[in-house]
Write a structure and sequence with these properties.
The structure holds 2 protein chains of 2 kinds. Helix content of chain A is 40%, strand content 22%. Chain A has helices spanning 44-51, 73-78, 95-105, 110-123, 139-151, 169-184, 196-202, 220-227, 234-241, 245-260, and strands at 6-15, 18-28, 33-37, 59-64, 80-83, 157-161, 188-192, 205-210, 213-218. In chain A, helix 4 packs antiparallel against helix 5 (139-151). The N and C termini of chain A lie far apart (67 Å). The mean pLDDT of chain A is 87. Chain B has a two-stranded antiparallel sheet with strand order 1-2. The model of chain B is unreliable at 1-13 and 39-58 (pLDDT under 50). Chain B has helices at 17-23, 25-37, 60-87, 102-128, 144-157, 160-178, 181-215, 220-259, 263-271, 275-286, 291-323, 345-359, 361-364, 369-382, 389-403, 405-414, 417-421, 428-443, 445-456, 466-488, 494-526, 529-552; strands spanning 6-7, 10-11, 386-387, 458-459. Chain B is mainly alpha-helical. Chain B contains 22 helices and 4 strands. Classes of the chains: A alpha/beta, B mainly alpha. The interface between A and B is large, with 56 and 48 residues.
């Protein structure tokens, strides 16, 4: 059996008095798409940042392709393609300038960089935006630039934090196909999403994170077995496992009051 | 608060001016927040007082308050400088200058405040040149007149302290020196005209810069145009050097020109703003100038008032177009060529730094530093026949101090993009090296100018020519220390942030001054240039060695 591309063991992260992660343990194998699902503030982005070496863990360990991001940050970052939840790029650079910068830092040959970027830019329909400053691009276009930049060095590991936000249907489909192709080639993908349908259809395994802990993990069928109801959707499962089912029902009642009990002043 | 009623949280009706002014705080807050959050639009001291903005733990309200505090701090500091700039020409004699005539004092005061106001406005207004700042307002059922006024007032808020400070101080100075109500009235009018013209020029610059950026492309024309703008910014920056050089160089030459018997030069001065104001006001209080001259000055003054009226109207219509998002279109050029030209990592980083800094209006004019240094150094030693070590020490120090702002500006220009860079397999030392190389290169004109001067004049000792070249090492070390400090910690709280920034500048200035002090001390003790130069070389080389040694212990960027 091959070694995991991402392995987190008893990861803990504390920000001041806030306990962001508590003993998080999971692994992502080559060819696997691991979906990290959790409500806002559950610790998804912190987990991704820890793996990428952007923050240090308070305790526990994490490795990417066997490398520790604290001790070998360059090795780890060379193996990762990362797309942040809100793509923060250099706004005054054009897409071309930005990708040239990324390719330079990642030491990619001109021929390889041009070939990969041409294919990806063509696929994502970047013809009109390739020489436009990033500041003028829509959120979706920025997301595409970030995606191309994350793939230009053909990394074995993709860390995608809400990668589909802002994308149109066509691009969204393309990204999903791209994720599948990446894993078919033996790569690993860890991605966080709020879109249950995407996780349901795309992920090999799902980890539900709640208050900094993985409260359930497994394939969709394994998760359904945990709750004992095979007809449940992932959304139902998610709300049940994160103890939000009752809360959602209460809030829906309040929303009903907003619409039907309040008359316009 | 509103004159009529509120319905579903939205308001309509024609509002009073005070209400409009109060409401203009909202889009102003948005502009300020955007510029600070993106680390754009900060003043030229780069990240001065840069606190931790954007932390996950902070809520939006706290962030907005913090952004407003930072903007208020920036604005207040520039307003204080502006008031000083307005007052100093009237008191030039206290700074060792001959007593300055009222004409020259008024003209210089207006010129320098024009420069400062424009310099500040040009950097803050770039965040304003976007319909996003009034996007929220545009969803409300406001009358067109109210909407336009709100956006105009939010624009005025960006320079309010600075303009008001300049106007009050100039009017007060004229009142004190002339005791003439008419002179005071004219000064008030022309001071306001001066501010309107400064803001109009800045808006024009900022708008063209943003349009240039938005329309993108890779055209050579765009690049040349940007370079021209940078040069023009450089000339605006001369306002600052004008202030520094004022008592020693500008005042005597100006006085001589004004007192000369050359009618053509006098007429020319009378026609040009701000000299026309100086001549007119001086004439009101003293009547010492020929009638024809004062008439030309008065006519010119009226023309400038009319011009300011047109500029004001243009500002209003431009602000309106900006707020409606119809000021200019974003063009997109279809390309089939997706080829990339990657470079070596360090060169790639330098290229990126140069691109983002030159496209950011708040930092672009730093590329005019070499021009500024050349002027300062030339001014400092131009009047001397024999160049001595002390002149070399002073001019290299002055040139070097300007360069110390460059690393902070380059880091500031990175803005939030630095967050992306942190995800790349990049050693922190590469970032430091890139910024250090760029900063050090901007210092190179100083030794070159001194070298040229050495050919034109006599030297007290040929060895002193080595001073500016050794200082290159000190400049590089100072840049490294500053950047290390900048990247080493993110401070919490305004006071800590200011202290941290003061620390950066103190470390930078000390690093620069130490080899020069070593030279001075050894020369005083030994009266030998060779020993002094050796001390200078030893000190600057040691500093660079320490800087390189510190780089070894850098952790990864996070």
């Amino acid at each position: 059996m091959s070694a995991p591309l991402i392995e987190a063991f008893e990861l803990t992260k504390q920000f001041g008095s806030v306990q962001a992660l508590t003993g998080l343990t999971f692994r992502v194998m080559p060819g696997e798409i691991y979906g990290l699902l959790g409500p806002n503030g559950a610790g998804k982005t912190t987990t991704i940042k820890l793996i990428n070496g952007l923050v240090d863990a308070t305790s526990g360990s994490v490795t990417v392709d066997g490398f520790d991001p604290t001790k070998n940050p360059i090795e780890v970052k060379s193996r990762i393609g990362y797309v942040a939840e809100k793509p923060i790029l250099y706004d005054s650079l054009s897409t071309r300038d930005f990708l040239e910068f990324v390719a330079s830092i990642r030491k990619i040959e001109e021929i390889t960089a041009t070939r990969i970027v041409t294919q990806l830019a063509d696929a994502f329909g970047m013809e009109k935006y390739f020489d436009a400053p990033i500041a003028t691009l829509s959120m979706g276009m920025k997301q595409k630039v970030a995606l191309i930049a994350s793939l230009v060095h053909q990394p074995p590991v993709l860390l995608l934090d809400e990668p589909l936000s802002g994308l149109d249907a066509k691009s969204s489909r393309l990204v999903k196909d791209l994720i599948l192709l990446h894993t078919q080639k033996g790569g690993a993908v860890l991605f966080s999403t709020h879109i249950m349908e995407v996780a349901e259809h795309l992920c090999t395994r799902i980890g539900i994170i709640y208050q900094g802990k993985i409260v359930a993990e497994g394939t969709l069928d394994q998760l359904k077995n945990k709750t004992g109801n095979k007809n449940e959707t992932l959304e139902d499962l998610f709300l049940k496992l994160t103890n939000e089912e009752t809360e959602v029902a209460d809030k829906t009642r309040i929303l009903g009051d907003v619409f039907f009990k309040n008359e316009a002043a | 608060m509103l004159t009529r009623h509120v319905y579903w949280g939205m308001f309509f009706s024609r509002m009073k001016l005070l209400e409009v002014w109060n409401l203009s705080r909202l889009p102003y807050k948005e502009v300020v927040f955007r510029s600070i959050a993106e680390e754009r639009g900060r003043m030229w001291w780069g990240g001065f007082g840069r606190g931790h903005l954007g932390g996950d733990a902070q809520n939006d309200h706290e962030l907005t308050k913090k952004a407003l505090r930072i903007a208020k701090f920036d604005k207040s500091l520039v307003a204080i400088f502006n008031v000083l700039a307005a007052v100093i020409p009237f008191m030039a004699q206290f700074f060792g200058s001959p007593i300055l005539g009222l004409t020259s004092a008024i003209a210089l005061s207006l010129a320098v405040t024009f420069g400062f106001t424009a310099l500040y406005a040009i950097q803050t207004l770039t965040s304003f040149i976007s319909p996003e700042s009034s996007a929220l307002l545009s969803t409300l059922p406001l009358e067109e007149r109210d909407f336009s006024l709100i956006t105009l007032f939010s624009f005025v808020r960006s320079v309010d302290y600075i303009a008001v400070g300049a106007i009050i101080s100039q009017v007060a100075m004229v009142a004190y020196y002339t005791m003439s109500p008419l002179a005071v009235l004219v000064m008030f009018a022309i001071s306001a005209v001066n501010s309107v013209l400064a803001v109009a020029v800045s808006l024009w610059f900022a708008r063209i810069f943003t349009r240039n950026l938005a329309q993108g492309g890779r055209s050579r024309g765009t690049t040349i145009l940007r370079f021209l703008f940078i040069l023009m910014w450089g000339s605006l920056l001369m306002g600052v050097s004008l202030l520094i050089s004022l008592p020693w160089y500008i005042v005597p030459s100006l006085e001589m020109s004004l007192l000369s018997s050359n009618q053509l030069s006098i007429m020319l001065f009378c026609f040009l703003h701000p000299f026309s104001a100086g001549v007119t006001i001086a004439n009101i209080s003293q009547s010492s100038i020929a009638d024809s001259t004062s008439l030309v000055a008065a006519v010119a003054l009226v023309s400038y008032v009319i011009l300011a009226g047109f500029a004001g109207k243009w500002i209003m219509s431009t602000v309106k177009r900006i707020s409606y998002g119809i000021d200019f279109n974003i063009s997109s050029v279809t390309t089939k060529d997706f080829s990339l030209k990657p470079h070596k990592p360090l060169f790639g980083y330098i290229l990126k730094d140069l691109k983002i800094a030159s496209r950011n209006p708040a930092t672009a004019f730093f590329f005019a530093l070499p021009v500024l240094e050349t002027v300062i150094v030339s001014f400092t030693i131009a009047n001397f026949e024999v160049l001595r070590a002390s002149m070399f020490l002073v001019s290299t120090f002055m040139g070097g101090v300007f360069v110390l702002l460059m690393p902070l500006a380059l880091l500031n220009a990175e803005g939030t993009g630095l967050e992306y860079t942190k995800t790349l397999p990049l050693n922190i030392n590469r970032i430091i090296t890139s910024k250090t190389l760029i900063s050090t290169l901007t210092y190179v004109p100083v030794p070159l100018v001194l070298l040229v001067m050495a050919f034109l004049k006599s030297l007290s000792s040929p060895l002193i020519l080595l001073i500016p070249f050794f200082v290159i090492l000190a400049v590089a070390s100072a840049s490294i220390f500053e950047i290390q400090l900048f990247l080493s910690c993110v401070t919490q709280g305004k006071i800590n942030a200011i202290l941290h920034d003061v620390k950066k500048l103190v470390v930078g200035v000390t690093t620069l001054a130490f080899p020069l002090a070593a030279y001075a001390i050894i020369y005083i003790i030994s009266s030998n240039h060779l020993f002094a130069v050796l001390a200078l070389g030893g000190a600057s080389t040691s500093e660079l060695a320490i800087a390189f040694h510190l780089l070894k212990y850098n952790k990864n960027l996070r």
